[in-house]
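Late entry, pyridoxal-5'-phosphate complex.
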Amino acid sequence: MDENKLKFNSKVIHGGQQPDKAYGAVAAPIYQTSTFAQSSPGQNQGYEYSRVSNPTRTALENALISIEDGTFAMAFASGVAAIDAVLRLLNAGDEVIVINDLYGGSYRLFTKVFERYNIVFHFVSMDEVSNIEKCISSKTKLVWIETPTNPLLTIVDIKMIAQITKKNNLLLAVDNTFASPYLQQPLNLGADIVMHSVSKYISGHSDVILGAVIVNDKEIADKLFFIQKSTGAIAGPMDSFLALRGLKTLHVRMQRHCENATTIAHYLRNNDKVEKVYWPGFESHPNHKIAKKQMRDFGGVISFVPKGGNYNDAVKIVETLKLFALADSLGGVESLVGHPASMSHGSIPKEEREKVGIVDGLIRLSVGIEDVEDLIVDLDKALKIV
Ligand SMILES: *Cc1c(COP(=O)(O)O)cnc(C)c1O
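Prediction complete; structure with ligand written out below:
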């Protein structure tokens, strides 16, 4: 069977997977071992030490390659460890152009860690691709984007940005965490590097922290493999197993996340206690056309500002919600709610935050796959409070 001919849902289940060589186990066994016996020095069965590689991690990496339509993958101990590895492709003095509406942890890693090693970051709005071109110098090496962004769900045109990066000989890296490969596959749109916080939609059950990078180019892959084994932030066998187990239902979960989010976005828009709803499925969303062209559906995350939009009301609402657990993270089967100004984006200075629209009243929902009617009852009760 030519695996490349499989459609997405079949790839999620079968892509890159074979029954285990030892006993034919259908589920990838957890090879909880640090090392592998050699018959003679240097003679092994493909594995020597688990920091370098481990069969359970390989099984996950092969599945990730398949669903992102890539060629090489590396699984890391966390999403930020995956980002860290990509940034280590650079040298001191190199410059990076970054989308300004960025995951808080990425912002912290770039500005508080890598700036100390003389990597220079330019944060720009990418609504206009000319903003990127204006920042390009001979020192620019990488463009880093997220789409949809967190938490304002801005969508940028990956294909169009890839044309600019190709023309200028830059790498384009896409944090594809919010979309997941079910909604978009950035390598097919011209990106060089796809990064995931696998902790979110791909694992999908809020029970593992894991990250990944997927690429097509062998030279970039070899550098990343070298960085991975040299710096050591690898995904362990148990976590790789959990991520792989979760991954196999990505398509059915995403379908329901998107359906439920569609219903809730419309409910919120029609609620007179709500001032503003951010969701790329609305025709009035500034990037709706790109979202429609680039993504299969509009995703499971919605942000909104209650009427009046003040800090205390937002806190009251997130405290009152019951089915939506108040917690960092997203992409699990259970619905979660977050308050970006005090939680995920707390490390970004208030002026910086508000410049891009992350106001004190903003609330972010990760819509789960429960019965949507129950989720709406929960929201209705909480919104009555303000
Ligand atoms: C969670 C997240 C990360 C970081 O991933 P971890 O697995 O928590 O280290 C990076 N980017 C985005 C968009 C995220 O949501």
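The radius of gyration is 21 Å. Will revisit in the morning.
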